[in-house]
Structure formats: structure tokens, C-alpha cells
Amino acid sequence: MTLESVFNAVPRTIRTLAATGHPEGYHGDYQRGSQFFEGWYVKLISADKTARIAIIPGVFLGEHDEAFVQVLDGVTGRSWYETFDAREFRGATKSFDVNVAGNTFNDRGVGVNLPLSGLNGSVRFTSPMDPWPVTATSPGIMGRYGWVPVMECYHGLVSFGHDLAGSLTLDGVEQSFDGGLGYIEKDWGRAFPAGYVWMQTNHFQMPGVSLSASIALIPWGRSRFRGFIVGLRMPGRDGTPVLHRFATYTGAETTMLNVDDELVTWTLRNIQGAELRIRAERRRGGLLHAPTRTKMHRRVEETLDGRVHVELVNPAGRTVYKDVGEAAGLEVHGDISDLTAMS
After folding, report:
1. In the chain, which residues fall in CATH 2.40.370?
2. Which of 106, 177, 185, 331 has the least C-beta neighbours within 10 A?
3. Residue-wise DSSP of 283-314
4. Mean pLDDT to the nearest integer, 103-131
5. pTM score, whole prediction
6. DSSP letters along 138-155, please?
């Protein structure tokens, strides 16, 4: 028996768990024979914020396999979805290293040549990526839920922020990203949640602050629950980054969630009594494709022009941090009435 045959004989669930410690890597090699998607959200913001681009490489395996690269121009709101043969997708399993038809995405930077969107060029990452910490008991942003092998959708945070250099040309106009700031996260699984709110920004007045926040309807057997993950990463007093986590798995609770046409207002409290208050301004964006249970379907509106007001209050009631994040990514989609009503 060859080593390859032994590896292929390992049950898929065990191989899934073995990959959990590398949320940044590709998880589809052990998903053959079942519907699966995976995509990396690569956000690039220029130093003056006049260029705001999100590029999402990925793959969908199902009734019709395809690789893809999506592009969102956060300034104009235009978006493009370019498809490729799934055989033109390659992804490393233990690192962020993705290639879609010669378009490259890894921990060194991005290189693209996309005829449909008219986007080409390269952007280097000039500082190390800053991922959500991975431990045996909490393998990344999903905490212990990352070990559950039957989740509909998994999430990973590849980098809270990293410096940029280089340029991209969009529709014949060169855009410089020298001195800019990047961000990377990802999703994989069978489908996106039926209803969710997601926001992200690392453009605060205080350097080094980054916020990633999402709340969604999570299927659980024959029922579902409202799960959320919020990470506010900021410099500590000695310069060492501090990650404030407010999540379902940490025992935190959502004390208020309201979504209307103009604002997302969200308040959370952790088990120590600290409170995080978020107010996100909704602005019109572009449409992105998202996975359903049968295909990639154009259905999600996302902006890169949001503003997120953040206030962190300690258990004694004192405000320890208050700021506004610019150039924010924001999505509100699906069954929001159930999401806001659920306790």
C-alpha cells in the first residue's frame, strides 16, 4: 500500500480536523465528492484612501465546478466576477498561497492580470501578515467551533493588517498602493449563512487598530442560533498588540442589535462586564457573488466606503477607547429580521 493510498483512506472528517490548525490554507483537497466553496478576501487600500479595491480569489466545487476571481472597486461600487476552469485553481494547504489561472495571492503580495475588469499589476506586502492567533483549543477566529466538522460555513482571519507597496492599473488608470494598508480574511464550507452582518476596518486615527465583526444565523441540527465573532486588535501600553474578543464561544452576549437603511447599531458585553459599542454607517456598494447550496449567485451588496464608530467601555463604565474607522467593508444580507429578533 502506497503512502498516497493510506492518505486517501483517512476519513474526510479526520483530515478536516487536521487542517483546522491552518485556517489560512486551502481546505478543498479533502472535500471532493461534496459541494464546497472557499474564497480569500484580499483588501487593498492606498495611503490616501482614494484607491480601495477588494480582490477575492476562490473556487466552487459542486454541480458545476469553477474557479473565480472577484473584484470590487470600492470607489465606484463597480464589481466584476471572472470565472475559470476549476483545474486552473491551486492552493497550498498549510499557508496562504493561491493561484487562479496565473493570478497569484500569497504572504508576499498579489499579482493579477484580469481582462474582464481591466485590472492588472502587483502589490507587495512589505510587513509580515498579522493573523488571528491559532492555538490547540482555539484554532483561529472561530474558537472551539473551528473544531466542529459539520459547520455550514467556516471563517478565518489571515491578517489584521500589513503594509503595502506597488501599483495596480484599473481601466487604464494606475493606482499606487505605496504606503497603503491591507487586510485578508476568508470563508469556506457549503454556503454562506441565511442572514448575517459583517464589517471590517483597520483605518482608525490610532495606528495599529483593526476591527473585524460578524453576526449570523448559524444552523445547528434542526434549529439555529445567533452566533457572533468580534475582534478589536489594538496596541497595548507596551506596544504589544492586545486582542479584545467578544464572541459566542467566549460567553459574551449581544445586548442590542438594530439594522435599518442607514445604520447598524450593535452593543456587546463580555463576561467580565466590558462593553463594546459599534455604530456602522451603511453606504451603497457593489454586488458580489456568494455561495448558495447549488452555485455561486450574485446576491450580496458590499461597500468599501463605510464608517464604523467604535467605543470600548471597561467594567467600571469608563471609556478606554473611542474612534471612527474609515474605508470600512460592510455587508448586510439575508434574513435580518430573524437575526435582530433572536435572543
Report:
1. 1-189, 191-343
2. 106
3. ---EEEEEE-SSSEEEEEEEEEEEEEEEEEE-
4. 97
5. 0.91
6. SBSTTGGGGG-TT-SEEE
